[in-house]
């Protein structure tokens, strides 16, 4: 593994394979959860969707015995407004690769209410639900402890799309979004809510993401959603496999 602190609070990790990355990321997630629980008595995290994190979730499920589940609440970073059993559903992937195999209490995983027809109303309802869960532990800060993210080749993260003129909107924690390049209307955590988290953890694999990784880390495209999250994060880790790190490592060699 290659470890590089690119700036204060920003660490890049490069693993030989997606499998090595998933094992390490699961270990890091578990350790950070335990650290937060020791420190504040709870651990609140949001989980991304797409294809990349499934391996990580399956590795995390293997560590199930270690967790004080009743002190942990998990949310979604974003969701496609498709039925909860649809092949594109992020919550279906999270349930299948983590919640069920880990024996995680389903009532501690708060999915986006995709059964609502209107994405904007679903976003508002989700924000209210997140707030209620945060209020249920009055002692803790009104932000998440960790947000797990992927990136798209276009520099999106969560469902914050570069072509969406509203993606920087900061008046809410959760908003609806849509992109002609991506299927389904979306519900997503807002840029400001993601940026307020204590720690952001990017999981990125594959050659197709290499150029965007280079742009983010070398700050050549600073206005992209993924670049803004990386730059604004209080603490951020970018875990890459060698394929996704290739362009960046070539320049930094
Ligand atoms: C989604 C995600 C999205 C994802 C990236 C990468 O719902 O699609 O939240 O932001 O993380 O598009 O997706 P892959 O992991 O499938 O490449």
What does this molecule look like?
There is one protein chain. This protein is of the alpha/beta class and 253 residues long. It has one domain (2-252): Rossmann fold (3-Layer(aba) Sandwich). Helices cover 38% and strands 23% of the residues. It has an 8-stranded mixed beta sheet with strand order 1-2-11-10-7-3-4-6, sandwiched between helices. Strands 5-9-8 form a 3-stranded antiparallel beta sheet. The longest helix is centred in the N-terminal third of the chain and has 23 residues, at 18-40. 6-phosphogluconic acid (6PG) binds next to loops.
List keywords for this structure.
253 residues; alpha/beta; Rossmann fold; eight-stranded mixed sheet; three-stranded antiparallel sheet; 38% helix; globular; binds 6-phosphogluconic acid
| Low-confidence runs | none
CATH topology type: Rossmann fold
Strand arrangement in the largest pleated sheet: 1-2-11-10-7-3-4-6
The first-level CATH class is given as Alpha Beta
The total count of helices amounts to 8
* Biggest pleated-sheet summary: 8 strands, mixed
- Report the strand count: 11
The second-level CATH architecture is 3-Layer(aba) Sandwich
List bound small molecules.
6-phosphogluconic acid
**What global shape is seen?**
globular
> What percent strand?
15-25%
Helix and strand run = EEHEHEEHEHEEEHEHHEH
Computed over alpha carbons, the radius of gyration is 17 Å
Helical content stands at 25-40%
Domain tally: 1
